[in-house]
Amino acid sequence: MELKFVATEKDEGRELLRVLRGDMALSAALVRKLKVRGGIFVNSRPAYTNYRLSPGDVVTCSLDLAEEDSDIVPERGEIDIIYEDEWLLAVHKPSGQLSHPSRARYTGTLANYVSCYLGGVCHAVNRLDRDTSGIVLFAKSSYAKARAAEALREDGEKEYLALAYGSFENKKGTIDAPIKRLRERDMRRGVCEDGERAVTHYKVLGERICFGEPVSALRLRLETGRTHQIRVHCEYLGHPLLGDVLYYTPESRALSEKLGINAQALHAFRLCFNHPFTGERLELVCPLKRSELRPFFENNIGFSGFMA
Length: 308
Prior knowledge:
The protein has 308 residues and is α+β, with helices and mostly antiparallel strands.
């Protein structure tokens, strides 16, 4: 994969390093790797970073030369592609699948399958909990990952669909409550005054009574991205997600069992950001699948047309 820049009259006499770090947005670490591995060219010839540009000079960087060997084992497996271009790949991750290898499991994850599809390259820009379904974004180079991650931080929008226990007093609102890990090496997080700021915006799309208990369908937008943020915030409000085995109340757990929901009812359905290379606003949408929460929305609970 190559990155190009064509010098104009205003670039007359500019040092190549300034173009690499500025106009081409390469990190200092990436520039060093490209220098060592001979991946920087001007007019198809190897160039030093102190080279002075002239109008019409074509700067080319061979990004593949800066890639490190991945420790993710490529493995053949099915992936559901939502979007793909020369820089990015967005796929649908089903509930129950790990996004990335862990100490306990090195294969069978979404990253293993993506690595195989991309020929050994795999750079996850975002991740989802194992039992959360929805959009996971990958980049095709470390450079693209850095640019995409920056784009998500600056102007990204992440939206989720969820089923929560109980009836919300306010049908629309914002949860601004700091989150931290409760104990070292404990997966659970909680709302604590000394935690990191966490902000979740929510809207109740509808409410139904199931087995005599209220269930609310939610659309949520993250302003921050703390671990387990939606799950923690919903529990904090007294409305844990159905099927959540980590954050629950006796009532939400009992209703989840009656409905047959044994994983948190959470789906990352929309990801929106400015494309880091084209500048266009990119909106990715991942509809609910029949094998995931959709049957509960449409059949068990009756939220017809939940994707509104």
